Amino acid sequence: MSSKNQVADGLSTTALETKTYSVAKLLDLIRTGKVRVPYFQRRFRWQDEDRRLLFDSLQKGFPAGTLLLAQGAAPAERVVLGGFTADVGEVKEALWVVDGQQRLSTLAMAFLDERSGAYRPIYFDLETNAFVLGARKRAPPPHWVPTHVLASSALLNKWLREGALPDEFSDRADQIASRLREYLLPAYLVPFDDEYEGVVKVMFARMNRNRHALSTDEVFEALHATREGGKPIDRVRAELTQVGFGEFEGKQIERAALAVAGKLPGAKLVDALSAAEVPALFARVSQALIRTVEFLAEDCGVPYIDWLPYGGVIATLAKLFDAHPKLHDRNRVLMARWFWRGNLSGDHRTDNKTDQPKWQAIGSDQHETVQRLLKLGNRIDVAAEVEAPLQPFNRRTARTRIELIALAAMEPRWLIGEDRGQPLALGALIEKEDQVPSAVTNASGTIVDYLLHPKFDLTKLGTRPDKVTLESHGLDDAMLDALLSGDDATFQAQRTKVLTHQVQTTLREWTGVNDADHDRPPLDAYFDSESA
Asked: What is the domain range of residue 47?
């Protein structure tokens, strides 16, 4: 039936339709390609327990929320929803998911995907009469029914026959299967075509914004996505990924855009820009962030974004490289000092109060800009941190990341294999989870207990690597002997001396705290108002 109530501007009084769908009907619509995910939707965000709780709600008859579906034509394409993937034809009246993607994706991956392995499977435990999460690589108990079996009477009957379960369990399985398939989800249907597309996007952003389901960058993406250009933040993220520095978070790109646009750190991008400003701004943001990545990798020695001590530095650097695409070589040296000092003092934490003066320091004269940024730092704290001993290892902390980057400056080489003695491509190895760093002792005290090298069996090392290769890891023959004999204490004592010296010496050089030049600007600054 059609609602007679007046709705938001841009939607006629009869355009909003209400309807209910059974889970079985929704699954049929998904199978036939009649349920689609619009280009402005976000990624799947639910955790395993969120998915299990949805099934718990369906079992108990709890409300599972109202769907918002936009009805309109859909092209022939590959449809991906949850774990379900299919090549489908053109549909004249498809249902585009505006609100309810997480729920429908959960239903699809549970009922239509027979274990892709991408997510932990959900089962119905016939003994406890409850939905449970299973393990990815371990077979479930015989009384746990896979959810995809519950979606089909034929599959369920076959599963029950093969399992030879008690009649009580069979009856319980039939009951829960019927309850799930017959569960009714209410839905609002709105038109989705060229006339209403903008209205639907606003509805999506406003609904999620009001209940805080979307982050600010996701709201921005929803409002400014286009069929041709896609999502502006996602587009920049994809361009940056090609550089090989890792994947930026949406909120990092959003904050960089705020800085480049000349807005305050506390502003919301969705409120700060008009649609007309977005394409040109994000073209600038992309270029500024590419220059930022080059600076971080080449001038600061950061091999991968996951090792960045503080992500708050990205927006400031983006604003700097937007204003001054070609920094003077001397200014690049000074900005590398600024980068490392802020990491050691904690000044590069994401903080509106500390970021605002940094952003405001960036003006039309690059020499004055760099000098203003340097003066904002706290050199007393930096000097103390430079001389600090090695800290407890925790790759989530800024200090451990700083020490790891200082070790990376030793240019570690392969210790094994055909490439032994050749430099490691750290960025590529860091990208593979748990590859680098790898533990070499049973302790996890400091970086001393780790190598910037993929894990391998030390007893199968074979011929000793040469001196240069060992030294690239802060090792020598004596340390290797101690390690192979199981004498961790001797190994740790000897390597602690070497790595402490390496970290402290490297940080002194990078921060320039003891340099006699006192952060002198380039000589050009005394003759030119602006240098290319």
From this structure: 17-197
